[in-house]
Specification:
Layout lengths: L12 H14 L6 E4 L14 H9 L3 E5 L10 H7 L2 E3 L2 H4 L4 E3 L6 H4 L7 E4 L8 H9 L3 E4 L11 H21 L21 E5 L3 H13 L2 E5 L3 H11 L4 E3 L3 H8 L4 E4 L6 H4 L4 H4 L7 E4 L20 E4 L2 E4 L9 H21 L3 H7 L1 H5 L1 E4 L2 E2 L2 H7 L6 H7 L1
Parallel strand pairs: 1-2, 1-4, 2-3, 4-5, 5-6, 7-8, 7-10, 8-9, 10-11, 11-13
Antiparallel strand pairs: 6-14, 12-13, 14-15
Helix pairs in contact: 2-3, 2-13, 7-8, 7-13
């Protein structure tokens, strides 16, 4: 039988070599055009790609379109990006002409105005901020939307959430030190262990990554740390990774109230999406705390986990209730925008290289299960039941979509 370009008959070594060749032919490297908008007006100081990462991507043959001033608040200049090979543009409309847009804030209705048909958008998926109008507009434009905070890596972990939680845990202790001082209206307490002086007492709600790194930093300064969580396994793991035993407890009301009465700092590091039913610390329990004690609710982006907490701003970050100082700033990582931007870039550079090598976003979604986990809109079709249920829309399973298309 003549060879028509495809192997036929017996499955042998030549057949497998042909199949391998076909796979690699379909995955020819694709040039990406990536847009980065300036979001400083929304109170966001971070940027998703540093000039160093832009240089790597451009050297691979990709294009980066950066809106003027996008990196200013992270102390990256337009000149640095231009020298790295980015094209600096004036308007947000020019940025959204790119095939892919990556942004540090969640998608808003105003963003969807600039999107074009079949565009790809990467942004954090924050259900509290995501509006139905934005979802419907993206569906009509057949947008593929990826929530980078729900992306998974090869170990099944959430790389963006983890690295941001590490930074947030450290930042929480920095904030505590700042607002316990006289300069910020605090009691004038040094957050650390001084000979002959009782150590500062810090209570952390949650033994996840944020709680772990808050505990690490506080212990390093010499503070006394007490950690509460719903899971005994997480508490056990916390002691293992810290390399020392700290006070841990599951949530028992009498135990929590006794600890709160002597705490200098309370850090909320547990997300409660239905605050009315799942708040961890009630108003009455806050009233048990000492005058001049400090609450830092790091879960405020998701509604907070303390009943008396309410969103504040970077301009006016604190208020006092019943003598207890409350720090409840959403997007607290904008305080350390450059560090957070580098952390973002460390995740997104290899992601974009992978997408390019796989021949584009569609192929990468098909072949990379972790990337697929982050997709909540695929070519205009909603793929997350949680979003569909919230807004009364219809969703479809992305694996079935990929098999059918």
């Amino acid at each position: 039988m003549g060879n028509t370009g495809k192997m036929s008959g017996t499955i042998n070594k030549q057949w497998f070599l042909y199949q391998e060749k076909e796979v690699f032919k379909d995955r020819k490297q694709k040039r990406l055009i990536i847009g980065i908008p300036n979001e400083s007006e929304k109170g966001e100081n971070r940027i998703c790609l540093t000039p160093e990462s832009v240089h790597v991507l451009v050297s691979m043959g990709n294009e980066i379109w950066l809106q003027r001033g996008a990196g200013n608040n992270a102390h990256y200049t337009d000149r640095e990006y231009a020298d790295a090979g980015a094209m600096v543009v004036e308007s947000i409309g020019q940025v959204y002409a790119a095939d892919i847009v990556i942004k540090a804030t969640s998608v808003s209705v105003s963003d969807t105005v600039y999107m074009h048909d079949r565009q790809v958008v990467l942004s954090p998926l924050k259900l509290g901020e995501l509006r139905k109008d934005a979802i419907v507009e993206m569906m009509q434009k057949k947008i593929t939307a990826i929530g980078f905070d729900i992306l998974k890596d090869e170990d099944g972990l959430y790389p963006v959430v983890r690295i941001m939680s590490e930074i947030a845990g450290n930042a929480a202790i920095m904030i505590a030190s700042e607002y316990l001082s006289n300069a910020r209206g605090g009691k004038g307490i040094m957050l650390g262990g001084i000979s002959g002086i009782t150590p500062t007492e810090i209570v952390i709600l949650g033994a996840g990554t944020l709680g772990e790194y808050a505990a690490r930093t506080a212990l390093g300064l010499g503070a006394t740390v007490r950690v509460f969580d719903y899971s005994v396994n997480r508490l056990r793991r916390l002691n293992e990774v810290l390399g020392q035993r700290v006070y841990t407890s599951v949530f028992h009301k009498p135990v929590l109230e006794r600890v709160l009465s002597s705490a200098d700092v309370l850090i909320g590091a547990i997300c409660c999406f239905d605050k009315a039913d799942n708040m961890v610390v009630t108003e009455e329990q806050v009233k048990l705390m000492k005058k001049g004690a400090l609450i830092i609710d790091m879960a405020i982006d998701h509604g907070g986990c303390i009943e008396t907490s309410g969103p504040t701003t970077h301009d006016k970050p604190v208020y006092t209730y019943e003598g207890v100082i409350h720090y409840c700033v959403p997007n607290v990582l904008s305080r350390v925008a450059r560090t957070a931007s580098i952390a973002y870039s460390n995740v997104f550079l290899p992601l974009f290289r992978h997408i390019s090598w796989q021949g584009g976003v569609t192929n990468a979604i098909r072949l990379n299960m972790g990337l697929r986990e982050g997709v909540y809109l695929y070519k205009g079709i909603l793929t997350k039941p949680l979003i569909a249920d919230k807004y009364g829309l219809i969703s479809r399973d992305i694996d079935l979509l990929l098999a059918a298309l």
